[in-house]
């Protein structure tokens, strides 16, 4: 298994088919293959050897697509950088991974002087934007024009394919080591369900391409000979326009993106009938938002994916048929074809059906380990199982229900409160656009349930009304004792709410 396999297959079978669409640029499979082979040659000429890490700090683009293929083609290792990080965090990840070559686009070229100051070992910067190349960088297009193509190194199987740094929701990011087998197994497992990523798919890249959720779709569609429609970053108008103009068939969105689309006043003015599959995940979604999205895209089958970077990234899937059963809308689905899922207690033994424990996963998609962190690796990988740190339970039919991150569970007055349950109830209030529930220190209760809420535009609601609404639906001790209203919630590059940042405010 190899990340470059799909390009070789497409070059043999459909060389003149369009492979990428980015703005006004379209490139065929044959054109992409030629550019990838030249970029790989340029990387080798710049001193990139087998197993060396090559970083990418960029918004989505067709050149990002080429980077994902050229780095393994050169025999090197991918290091896609989280675009929401500070200079300090980016420099740390480059130093931690020993990435000496970095590709940057126009949006991030201004960060290069600061990165060089914090990470003097940065040897080469390749500018992959469309504006003028900065003085301290090499031109991406000039490198391609002046370099001969090289043969694919055919890096594959258990060899390291990439370092993918975790989103940092619970601490400083760790480099997750994923092999070619890890990544391809997860992508093919998802495609094998038939829920999405079918042959001929036209996948819209609106989620960030540095993230595993988008990358998994990229791998599947590349292997199946599909077309990649790429927008630089999520924007409701850009997404709606791209779907209509390019007849997009598959789209991956995180819940905050879904909310932004269904709330946009121009939603009904665009023809979205081409969309046949919507994959969502990365964080829980409020049931009202999901139901509105399903109504807005009636031709699309909705699939929820649950997983994590360490699982490359998919563990379970809730398919389109499951979405038609109201009792399952709060489920994360059942184990994907490539994964085995259990819920275990502190001793590592499976707990009874319906009992909350820790979700663990086994299979060929499970990471190799954490880069340069053997102790962290041993703690996460035990007896062949990846311990996710998520609390959940399985029902009698194998459907997984996520209760909470174990670290996010609130213990108030001796009672366990799962923040996800409270968030789902609060989100059902018509005046709520988004919310996050955390535990904050309390002299009486140890921790108290606290909600941070973003009101829907033009709506008004008070803390007392939120508490009354919550108490009408779940036990009183689970209702937020305190409520704050905010303009927005802090989110990671993958769209996950950063509860760590919220906790800092109330520590």
UniProtKB/TrEMBL annotation:
Under the GO molecular function aspect, what terms does this record hold?
ligase activity
Q: Report the residue ranges that make up the AMP-dependent synthetase/ligase domain in this protein.
A: 8-371
**Where do the AMP-binding enzyme C-terminal domain residues begin and end?**
421-496
User: What keywords are annotated for this sequence in UniProt?
Assistant: Ligase
The keyword Ligase is annotated on this UniProt entry: yes
PROSITE patterns under this entry?
AMP_BINDING (PS00455)
Q: Name one Pfam family in it.
A: AMP-binding_C
Cite the NCBIfam families for this sequence: PRK06187.1
Indicate what this protein is called per its UniProt record.
Long-chain fatty acid--CoA ligase
Q: Which organism is it from?
A: Amycolatopsis acididurans
């Amino acid at each position: 298994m190899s990340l470059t396999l799909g390009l070789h297959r497409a070059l043999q079978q459909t060389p003149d088919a369009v492979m990428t669409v980015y703005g006004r640029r379209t490139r065929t499979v044959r054109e992409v293959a030629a550019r990838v082979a030249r970029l790989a040659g340029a990387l080798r000429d710049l001193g990139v050897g087998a197993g060396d890490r090559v970083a990418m700090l960029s918004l989505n683009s067709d050149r990002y697509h080429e980077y994902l293929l050229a780095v393994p083609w050169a025999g090197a290792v991918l290091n896609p950088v989280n675009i929401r990080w500070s200079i300090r965090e980016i420099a740390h990840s480059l130093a931690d991974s020993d990435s000496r070559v970095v590709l940057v686009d126009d949006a991030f070229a201004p960060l290069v002087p600061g990165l060089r100051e914090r990470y003097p070992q940065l040897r080469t910067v390749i500018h992959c934007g469309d504006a003028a190349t900065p003085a301290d960088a090499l031109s991406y297009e000039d490198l391609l024009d002046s370099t001969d193509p090289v043969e694919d190194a055919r890096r594959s199987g258990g060899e390291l394919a990439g370092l993918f740094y975790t989103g940092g929701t619970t601490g400083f990011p760790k480099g997750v080591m994923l092999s070619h087998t890890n990544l391809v197994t997860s992508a093919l497992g998802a495609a094998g369900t038939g829920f999405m990523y079918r042959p001929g798919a036209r996948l819209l890249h609106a989620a960030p391409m540095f993230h595993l959720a988008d990358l998994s779709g990229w791998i599947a569609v590349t292997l199946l000979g599909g077309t990649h429609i790429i927008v630089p970053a999520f924007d409701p108008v850009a997404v709606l326009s791209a779907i209509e103009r390019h007849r997009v068939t598959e789209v991956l969105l995180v819940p905050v993106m879904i909310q932004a689309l269904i709330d946009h006043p121009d939603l009904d003015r665009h023809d979205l009938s081409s969309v046949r599959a919507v994959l969502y995940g990365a964080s829980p979604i409020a049931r009202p938002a999901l139901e509105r999205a399903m109504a807005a895209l009636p031709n699309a089958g909705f699939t929820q994916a649950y997983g994590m970077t360490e699982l490359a990234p998919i563990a379970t899937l809730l398919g389109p048929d499951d979405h038609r059963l109201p009792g399952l809308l709060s489920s994360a689905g059942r184990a994907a074809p490539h994964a085995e899922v259990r819920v275990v207690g502190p001793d590592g033994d499976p707990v009874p059906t319906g009992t909350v424990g820790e979700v663990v996963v086994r299979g060929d998609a499970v990471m190799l380990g954490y880069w340069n962190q053997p102790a962290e690796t041993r703690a996460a990988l035990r007896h062949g199982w990846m311990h996710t740190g998520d609390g959940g339970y399985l029902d009698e039919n194998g459907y997984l229900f996520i209760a909470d991150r174990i670290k996010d569970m609130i213990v108030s007055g001796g009672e366990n409160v799962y923040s996800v349950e409270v968030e789902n109830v609060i989100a059902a209030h018509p005046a709520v656009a988004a919310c996050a529930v955390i535990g904050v220190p309390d002299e009486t209760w140890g921790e108290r349930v606290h909600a941070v809420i973003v009101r829907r535009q033009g709506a008004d609601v008070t803390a007392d009304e939120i508490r009354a609404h919550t108490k009408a639906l779940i036990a009183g001790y689970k209702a937020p004792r305190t409520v704050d209203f905010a303009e927005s919630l802090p989110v990671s590059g993958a769209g996950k709410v950063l509860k760590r940042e919220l906790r800092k405010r109330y520590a």
